Amino acid sequence: MPVIATASLTKRYPRVTALDELTVEVGSGVTGLVGANGAGKSTLLKILLGLIAPTAGSAIVLGHDVVTGGEAVRALVGYMPEHDCLPPDVSATEFVVHLGQMSGLPATAARERAADVLRHVGLDEARYRPMGGYSTGMKQRVKLAQALTHDPKLVLLDEPTNGLDPAGRDEMLALVRRIGTEFGIPVLITSHLLGELEHVCDHIVVLDGGRLLRSESKAALTGETGVLAVEVRDLSGRDRLGAALTRSGARARPDGPLVLVEITGDETYDLVRDTVAELGLGLVRVEPHRHRLEEVFSV
Ligand SMILES: Nc1ncnc2c1ncn2[C@@H]1O[C@H](COP(=O)(O)OP(=O)(O)OP(=O)(O)O)[C@@H](O)[C@H]1O
C-alpha cells in the first residue's frame, strides 16, 4: 500500500491553481518533491496534513483520507514547515518537550524523547539556550527534531536545506537520509534544487505549475546511458586518449576529467583498453556513465 496516494487533487486560490489534477503515489524510502518556487509543493504538504482543504480530488495518507481524517493523519505524521516558526525566548529542549506533550506523550517520555531527537540532529549543549540566538542551521535542526518527537510513521520536510551553506546543507541531507534508512521512516522532502536531492532520494516526483511532470525511481532516472566513462591520470592524457579513440572511429568527447565513449558493443571496451595501453596512460577508472538528475530534466 502506498504511504501517500492522491487522485486528481486540485487546489484553486482565487487567482491561481496551485495544484492541478495531481495523481501521484509515494512509497517507502526517501522521496524528493521537486519544483520551482510556486510549483505547489507547500500546498501539497499542507493538504496532506489536513491543514487546508483541496478544491477537488482526494488524498490518502497512511490509509486515512486527509479531509475526514486530518487528526489521525497529524498523529502519525511529522512535519517540518518551511518558514521560521520557532519562539525566540524558549530553548530547543523546552520547545520540543512541549510539542511532544502536545502530541500526547507523558512528561517524562517527552523529556527523554526530546533529548534523543535533539542529540540525533546534533544539538548538544546549545539545546538549553533560547532559540533566538541560534544560527539558521541550528533552527533547521530544531525544526527537524520536533518533526520526529512523536515517533511518526511518515515525515514531510518542506525545504529543510533552505538558508543553509553548502556544509550545512550536506549535513541536513545526511540526517534526512538516516531518517529514511536507519530509522526506516518514509520521508517526503521538498526542494527547488533537483541536484541536491540526487544523493538522498530513492524516488523523485517533479511538479510544474501544480501538475505532475514526472514520478520515477532515481535508479530509472539515473540509469546507464550507453556511454563509457574513462578517466586517465592527467588532462593531457585525457586529450590524447580522446584523439586516438576518435582516429580509431569511436565517438569520444571530453567531460571534465573524463573521456565519454559511446558503447557500440564489446569491441568498445577492447578498444579503450588497447588504446590506453598503447599510449602508456595511467588508467584511473572505466565505468558505465550514468545520467545525473539535472541532465535528465534539462532535456
Ligand atoms: N494562501 C494562498 N492564497 C493565494 N495563493 C496562494 C496561497 N498559498 C499559495 N498560493 C499560491 O499557490 C501557488 C503554489 O504555492 P506553493 O507555496 O504551494 O508553492 P511551492 O512550490 O511550495 O513554492 P515555494 O517553494 O516558493 O513555497 C503559488 O502561485 C502561490 O502564490
UniProtKB/TrEMBL annotation:
PROSITE patterns membership: ABC_TRANSPORTER_2 (PS50893)
InterPro entries membership: AAA+_ATPase, ABC_transporter-like_ATP-bd, P-loop_NTPase
Pfam families: ABC_tran
Keywords associated with the record: ATP-binding, Nucleotide-binding, Transport
Molecular functions (GO terms): ATP binding
CDD domains: ABC_DR_subfamily_A
SUPFAM superfamilies: P-loop containing nucleoside triphosphate hydrolases (SSF52540)
Record domain ABC transporter: where: 4-234
Family: Belongs to the ABC transporter superfamily.
Annotated protein name in UniProt: ABC transporter ATP-binding protein
